[in-house]
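Why show two proteins at once? Because comparison is the fastest way to build intuition. When a single record is shown, students tend to memorize it. When two are placed side by side, the eye starts asking what differs. So, the first record is below.
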Amino acid sequence: MRLKRIFHYLFLSFVLLLFHSQSWAQDPQFSQFYANPLYLNPAFAGSTFCPRIAVNYRNQWPSLDGQFVTYSGSYDQYFDVLRGGVGALVYQDNAGDGTIKTFSASLMYAYTLRITENMALKAGFQGSFWQKSLDWNKLTFGDMIDPRYGFIYSTQETEGSRAVNNVDFSTGFLLYNEFWYLGVAVHHLAEPRESFFQNDDAVLYRKYTGHFGAVIPFRRDDPEYGSVSPNILFMTQGQASQLNLGIYAKKSVIIGGIWYRFNNLTNTEFGITSDAVSLLIGIEVDKFKFGYSYDITVSRLGSIDGNTGGAHEVSLGLKLNCPTKRRRFKALNCPEF
């Protein structure tokens, strides 16, 4: 039991270091990128023309003491009078068994511009409020440890703020036609301050995202028969960077997919490392979709700890009554997960 508490102390200290450090402050991770489109890129708002609801849940490293659990929900809809889509997104991230919590609520608008008969450009803008809170009562420090009896002392460490509030802004663009899509997004344009300590100016670094994919039907004359969709997604934030390579296959109502994730593409000190393999299975029936994915840890973290438990992710999606009005351009055709 004493060893477990010491490990808990070490893990929570590591988590605190991650969120306190300017270099490694990062956003929560999702593997089902297109099942949470507004989180990926604000330009996705209104991209289906149908009112859309998305709910997502992720539990990362459940076998470790202090896993990361993230919930998110979003709604978006296209409005003819605005010539674009409006969306709302909220998420809650709990790190280290809730030691550090992050809540964010966002509103976004994405203007849609027809470029050619078969191509459109969407430009999105997002405004957010977020709060990061720290439960100091769950933290343990080195001066609390007795070599024989474990954690028996009170810490002399100075407690910082329990919560940090700020506003944030993001933008994104999406270019697409019937068979491919290309997007870029920049989150945290103002790099808001997120430190719990008054004498520290740690900020949430800008996150740059680029993503590209294509939908290749098995039968050109019958797109509903089935399709395959190769994808690439790159993200960088502060000193962290990530490359995701994946492919989906859809047949009838069943969708399967696999992604491989690399880290540290821009960090010459550590070099490129493999992080995880994500396996996905999903169904899409009429206006409803359900997806489940599991991330297999292939990084050194898995080899050191033995079993992280990977990451479980569940997504639910629902499209409400879609308008039958004929439009000047088609809805975005991309994977649902």
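Second record. Ask yourself what differs from the first in the token line.
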Amino acid sequence: KPADGGTLGIGFKVSVYPNPIREWSVIEYNIDVGSRYSLVVYNILGQRVFNFFDGHKIKSMNKENFNKNNMASGVYFAVLKDITNSRTVYCKFINLK
């Protein structure tokens, strides 16, 4: 069952800051077990906007710098999937022009 992102620490989590974003943001994610993962940004319509990775990751805390690259104003979701163990977490964020 998806869980909304929050403060990172122990566990399987994703967060975006600053939120709302204007030009850039940082997507932080915590991986609690080595597995195959994907990190994707979707718009409110469920369309893939940006794909960060799809591959094996080890247990770690990570950051990805994100430049909004001509994204329209609106609501977006950073979605972290643990493909091997069928888990998903997400964080909603707002893009302002």
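One difference worth noting in the second protein: The two ends are 32 Å apart (CA to CA).
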